[in-house]
Design a protein that fits this description.
The chain has 107 residues and is of the alpha/beta class. The chain has 3 helices and 3 strands, in the order βααβαβ. Strands 1-2-3 form a 3-stranded parallel sheet. β2, α3 and β3 form a beta-alpha-beta unit.
Length: 107
């Protein structure tokens, strides 16, 4: 039997990413792959909110895939200012955020 394909997803957890991430977490056994790691980065919201959203999604999908926090700004040092973005769906959801480990070290 061939070894399982390993997948790493880097996400800003926008709506499109969240749907793909939920599918990836729930369909691992059906399609014979391993979701090895989820790395996060800023997008329409800051990386802390992205982490909260991904942790909540992982919990809802009953996944144990490790999550590590990535870039909080773009290469110019700019951070998002999304205001009332719909991506901030869990602003008060109590979660344990990923450890500040650079994702490159885990890949």
């Amino acid at each position: 039997m061939a070894p399982k394909r390993r997948i790493i997803i880097d996400t800003d957890a926008g709506v499109d990413d969240a749907v793909a991430l939920a599918m990836a977490m729930t369909l691992e056994s059906k399609y014979d792959y391993e979701l090895s790691l989820i790395t996060t980065c800023h997008g329409n919201v800051g990386v802390d909110q992205v982490n909260r959203n991904v942790v909540a999604l992982r919990s809802a999908c009953r996944s144990a895939t490790p999550i590590v926090s990535g870039a909080a700004s773009n290469l110019r040092g700019e951070t998002p200012d999304a205001g009332q973005c719909a991506c901030s769906a869990y602003p008060h959801h109590p979660v344990s955020l990923p450890a500040p480990v650079h994702s490159v070290n885990l890949i």
